[in-house]
Design brief:
The chain is mainly β. It has one helix and seven strands; from the N terminus they run E-E-E-E-E-E-H-E. The strands form three sheets. Strands 5-6-7 form a three-stranded antiparallel β-sheet, with no helix packed on it. The radius of gyration is 12 Å and the shape is globular. About 20% of the residues are buried.
Length: about 80
């Protein structure tokens, strides 16, 4: 895993692929679309992990209860 895939020592957003509007976490589980905010240059999306407390990758993924990933309209790896 390269440094570009880590952010503050945790898994970076590049390890959370989006296909057909569905985001999957680094463990391969589907994440919940928590919010979609319309902005002038596109939608801002916020996804929340499901099942994080039982996940063996949690320590490498988040310090919180669940992982959240925010996708801004100008990010290149969107659907």
């Amino acid at each position: 895993m390269g440094n570009q895939e880590l952010f503050k020592g945790k898994y970076g957003n590049k390890l959370f692929p989006i296909a057909d509007g569905i985001m999957k976490c680094a463990a391969g589980l589907e994440m919940h679309l928590h919010s979609k905010v319309e902005e002038a240059n596109g939608d801002k999306l916020v996804y929340i992990g499901v099942g994080c407390s039982e996940c063996p990758l949690k320590i490498k993924c988040t310090d919180g209860k669940n992982r959240t990933v925010t996708i801004l309209p100008d990010m290149k790896y969107r659907d």
